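Anyone? Bumping this.
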Amino acid sequence: MEDVLNALILMTNFVLVPGMAYGAQLALGALGITLIFSILRFANFAHGDLMAFGTMITILLTWWLQGAGFSIAPLPTALLALPFGIIAAVTFSLVIDRSIYRFYRQQGAAPVVFVMVSLGVMFTLNAIVRFVVGTEDRRFIDGERFIISAGEFKSITGLAEGLAFRQSQALTVITAIILVVALFWFLQKTRTGKAMRAYSDNEDLALLSGINPERIVMITWIIAASLATIAGVLYGLDKSFKPFTYFQLLLPMFAAAIVGGIGQPVGAIAGGFLIAFSEVTVTYAYKRFLGHLLPESLAPGNLVQLLSTDYKFAVSFVILVLVLLVRPTGIFRGRVL
Amino acid sequence: MSKTNVAALDIPYPTMIKTCHPIFLFVIMGALIAVVGFYQSWSIALAILQLCLISSIMALGVNIQWGYAGLFNAGIMGFAALGGLAAVLVSVPPVKEAWAAGGVNIVLAAVSGLATIGAVLFVRARIERPFRILAITPIIIIGFLVVRWFFDPAVEAIEGYNAAHYGFLGGAGLPIMFSWILGGAFAAGAAWLVGKTVLRLRSDYLAIATLGISEIVIAVLKNEDWLARGVKNVTGLPRPVPYEVNLQKVQWFLDLTANLGADAVSASSIFVKICYIFLFLLVLAALMWLANTALASPWGRMMRAIRDNRDAAEAMGKDVTSRHLQVFILGSVVVGIAGAMLTTLEGQFTPGSYQPLRFTFLIWVMVIVGGSGNNWGAVLGGFIIWFIWIEAEPVSLWLMGFATSSLDTDSPIRNHLIESAPHFRLFLMGAILLLVLRFRPRGLIPEE
């Protein structure tokens, strides 16, 4: 019995908890991508860098607050700086939309032109972020690190395996739940949310019924940029901040949005968790897990790892390609690509 | 409703900007490189020119896909890296001991992998839908286990052999120039696989899918050490041109430099660079001739017809899917050749250096700036953008030095600004791309 418990705790510690946190971060990013896709109708390649930009502003403010002696311990100071990061990212997005994207909207340009434009924005944002904070790894977490650490857990339960639950992971999951509930309430119940859904469904009909497209677009950017910044800060608290990593996060986020069904907010969340858990489970070494469950004579000699950890990013893309082949609309029947 | 791809780039733009004659633009480009030669050094100018040529071949490949057919391939990095892999596999002498240690198992792993794929395809074609998954799943699981059974000990054996120097199977030990052909062939194979699976996607999703696939290619190259040493890199690849040290011992070369009154050491380095440039120019000229001939032929007209109105072309009986696959493969071959040339020039294969900004998106900027749909435009774009990419660094350093000259030498602001100056070129690329898309969406040399 204790072996089974140990095995379960081990899986929770190394697969379930990290997967939940990473999945929630991906889901928040993918929600932004899917919203931009359903309202502005293009794949935003600058989303990872937008995330980096909002996070960067938050980090700079966090450092300043830490230097000035502000603290909301046991919570990380970054939460205090987060609203300003969001404001910066939203402002940036709106300025870019007004000065760049709107021109192409008025021209009625094809989606691919928007993608090209977002490549330009991506380069620019990338440069700004690297220019301001450089390319190194940055850590900005403070406050209490663990809600429960592995050692504490072992001494409380007397089990051989420990279960660590970091504060950043708890914060991520709680924030994600609150945001998702709020977003769905907004999309389903409020007038503006309904207008957004109508616009996404059928642009012409929405225009005919008097919906102001520029307002819809503005709100979309506000939501997408806020979600991106929050996801970025949570990811940075959980792991660390590095501009290149954030640029790379674009790939699993895209995968999550497409796997879930493009234009479907529920799909983006499901996709985020699916991608996160497949990355973690496929690259996890099951040696110790099986060691607990199997009798000693059968215990595996090697790591029992399906793929080495270096293939983490590749996993999300294999899933993406498989979904595109088998069910191009994604799990939740989004748009046909 | 079907919006066509490139026709949409045809945004009306201010007609005040008149089109300059292409030859004039190329002359300006040559003059810019000459300026670098006079003010910095000829060695730098020629190094820039070498990479300008390779970049323009890559841009040409992308233009074949995008300009001819409107396919948005964001996986250029992957095809270039496959070309680089070809350079290693062709030129490095085989590591006999590694083959002896794990060669048999690697071959068996490959055979069982192919057999698994064959079995899956066989079953797929013969069993109806609801039971198909039940039959295929065990085949895949068993196949995976069998492959790993042979593969894992093989990898351990190969990577275990003198890991500091070898730890891989090596190549064929042939002259490296052959890799330019093999690189194209690798890229063609990969493009066929990729095209078969993802070409039917809408343009921006094709971009995401290809971007992801190129990341997978890089992940494999980085981690499969037995193949090309992964991130431990393969250095010292043989050259297709003479080595400087050897040149400095040859009598006719010493006589030549003596007659020109030049220093033999720097002259030999310039001579080697010119040899490379000559080779690259040959390849570029041949590819340009092929590409332009194809574009002007009935085939080229058909491709443009498909691009501009897919539905109409389909109604006329053109097989759009297989034409797209064809043009996707052709473009990728050109990128693969350029990738092999790049690795040849660098003399080393470093999978860690393949980054999407430099190898995918920069090439895209070249094509858009140069003029999509026009091969000369793509080539010009390759030259201009590579030139700016390289020269942005000294220029921005100089600007930063000038702007901060009033500050103290150890002021943190000054140091930070000077340290960050290299990132300025990313900003410049973004700005150039946005400006061109806004004010000159058809590029510097528009399609005729």
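Late reply, but here is one note on the structure posted above: Chain B touches chain A through 50 residues (CB under 8 Å).
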